[in-house]
Amino acid sequence: MARVIRTVSPDVFAAHGDFSNQLHDTLRKSPWWMMSIAFHVVVALVLSMFTTTEVAVAKPKAVTAGSVVESFEEEPPDQEDLEPLNNPENVAREDFDVPVPVSDQPETDNDSLFNEPMSYGDIGKSDAPFDGPDNNGKLGTGTGGGGAFPGRGGGRPGGGPSGGGKPREDAAVLEGLRWLAAHQSPDGSWGAADFIQWCDGKPNPGEKPDGPGGAAYDVGVSGLALCAFLGAGYTNRGDHEFAKVVRRGLAFLKNVQDPEGCFGPRSTQHYIYNHAIAALAMVEAYGMTESNIYKGPAQRALDFISLTRNPYFVWRYGVKPGDNDSSVTGWMMMALKSAKLINEDAVKRGRPRPLSFDEEAFDGIRSWLDKMTDPDYGRVGYVTRGSGPARPQALLDRFPGEKSESMTAVGVLARIFMGDDPRKDAMIQKGVALMTQLPPTWNTNDGSIDMYYWYYATLALYQAGGAAWKTWDAAMLTSIVANQHKDSTYCGFKGSWDPVDPWGAEGGRVYSTAILTMCLEVYYRYDKVAGTR
């Protein structure tokens, strides 16, 4: 909730002095009953000044670079704005960044529409105002996206463009989400290393940790898991099986955001990845719900993205580190693109833009991609033009760079999302040709599995459409869907994917399951930019 610190200028005090002199002169000539009324008016004015100042000082909020100070006159508070005043738990969490236990109760107050049981027949109800055809009445209900993300939920009855037309992919998405839900920690996070300790939020001592990642990436994989739920149209609202899961996950991210807007500790140089992915999740959660509970964290996350970008170029590790890379830039681009979609949708509905962000960053991204793209072949480099993808040093031989076009996929998707037409742009077409030569192949012996590459290439080729997309789409069925665990142990492996790519040791089974689930949501996660088929 926006807070405005009110200060009183010397001119105001002077005005009050003139007023007092005039009032005193008038009252001397007035009867006693008029004097009584005037006395009570003056007392009321003085008390109101002291009350406003005290509230403003009691709850100061830091203003970070690039943030927007809003006034209540521009956007009156809704019921969710008032929740921290009624719920001491939320006051501590929102205003003072003190970690608290995550409540199972919805983060709303006295709005029955948020919590009414919903069925698929209820699609069209919304907790947000209905603004006509551009708002399809499904904002954040758990039965499909709305606003900037209208197609989300396409794998379920009444959902988006796929209309349930991809039954195997839709079933795989649901099983992936159920596995993620079963392994969420009680504090709302997903532990890259210790996920196996939990089964539906309860201790699970009987399982051994198969597929652990690194604990330093907990915030990042938590953001990735949330993106998987949001991508399928599930938010913290509605009567669906994942509402509590999403609510807890978003509350966890809010708890680990620092005053500058960064999600998670800065204990390793790779913390910037954690922030970028968590920012993507928080921005999309706000976009799907229009909830002020998530607007503040989303804005602060965008502010930190602005703070960390190198002037005229992009991002790498840390705050304006001087060097740049295409990998971190990809995740930052995704968060900024979602913010832009939210603002564009607001304008379309006749509303002010709700988020501010570094719009010049898109110029920096384009400059960096031009610098990194080989003009002859369209390959995008990681830190040097036309080079191969990034790899952990110890896994260079096991996962050869020529088996992946991950940075090319990032570059193609960024160009499309920035408005370049894939049917006309030469660099996009060359990149598409490179990716078509390396479709998803599940071979644990030749180093060809790269889920990070598959994720960006899936998004990029879906946008590009045509024969390249049809080839890739078919390959996803035989590689991704076919290799999801189908065993019957709910808190074991069922619904997950083994973390057998170059980044499995960092992200673990949570990473592999979340990112491959997101691949299979491609049919409804984002609208096609250029109208390709």
What are the salient characteristics of this protein?
533 residues; mainly alpha; Glycosyltransferase; two-stranded antiparallel ribbon; 18 helices; 47% helix; globular; disordered N terminus
Task: Write up this protein.
This protein has 533 residues and is mainly α. It has two domains: 58 residues; 403 residues, Glycosyltransferase (Alpha/alpha barrel). It contains 18 helices and two strands. A two-stranded antiparallel sheet has the order 1-2. A hairpin with a 2-residue loop joins strand 1 and strand 2. The radius of gyration is 26 Å and the shape is globular. The N terminus is likely disordered.
Mean pLDDT: 77
Q: Main beta sheet: strand number and arrangement?
A: 2 strands, antiparallel
CATH architecture of the largest domain: Alpha/alpha barrel
Q: Beta-strand level of the residues, as a percent range?
A: under 5%
How are the strands of the largest sheet arranged?
1-2
What's the N-to-C terminus distance? Answer: 42 Å
Shape: globular
Q: What level of helicity do the residues show?
A: 40-55%
